[in-house]
């Protein structure tokens, strides 16, 4: 997993609950709730398929405490193992909240493809 993933456009209505799909199973240490993760990711809007962010475009992964991230990541990353690639589809309430919430992505369902590079 050394290259930026393509995020395919998803047909149909946006899900109302968090969707978690493993693209590649990792075989390293496991991410835990409340832990720290080092990830590469691509984020796109579900409705348009337009990318809004990607660590790949900045040339380096990012390290975060999970408890500082959106709820969809807090729920969707634990259990993932280093070396894995996972797709999360986050409805607005697990992303940046309802429309009018003050964030440019408020009210939007978001799709992330996340590569877990490290934990701890």
From TrEMBL:
Keywords from UniProt, A to Z, are:
Isomerase, Rotamase
Residue span(s) of domain PPIase FKBP-type: 34-120
Molecular function (GO) terms for this protein are:
isomerase activity
Q: Which Gene3D superfamilies match?
A: 3.10.50.40
The enzyme's first-digit EC class, named in words, is isomerase
This protein's source sits in the domain of life called Bacteria
Catalytic activity annotation? [protein]-peptidylproline (omega=180) = [protein]-peptidylproline (omega=0)
Q: Which PROSITE patterns match?
A: FKBP_PPIASE
Q: What is its EC number?
A: 5.2.1.8
Q: Mind telling me which PANTHER family this protein's record contains?
A: 39 KDA FK506-BINDING NUCLEAR PROTEIN, FKBP-TYPE PEPTIDYL-PROLYL CIS-TRANS ISOMERASE FKPA
> What family does this chain come from, according to its entry?
Belongs to the FKBP-type PPIase family.
Q: What protein name applies here? A: Peptidyl-prolyl cis-trans isomerase
Organism field: Aeromicrobium halocynthiae
List the top taxonomic levels of the source: Bacteria, Bacillati, Actinomycetota, Actinomycetes, Propionibacteriales
């Amino acid at each position: 997993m050394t290259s930026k993933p393509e995020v395919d456009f998803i047909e149909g209505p946006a899900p109302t609950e968090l969707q978690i799909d493993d693209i590649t199973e990792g075989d390293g240490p496991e991410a835990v709730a409340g832990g720290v993760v080092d990830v590469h990711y691509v984020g796109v809007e579900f409705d348009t398929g337009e990318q809004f962010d990607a660590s790949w475009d900045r040339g380096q992964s990012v390290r975060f405490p999970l408890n500082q991230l959106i709820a969809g990541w807090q729920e969707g990353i634990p259990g993932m193992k280093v070396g894995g690639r996972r797709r999360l589809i986050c409805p607005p309430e697990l992303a940046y909240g309802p429309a009018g919430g003050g964030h440019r992505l408020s009210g939007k369902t978001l799709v992330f493809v996340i590569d877990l590079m490290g934990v701890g």
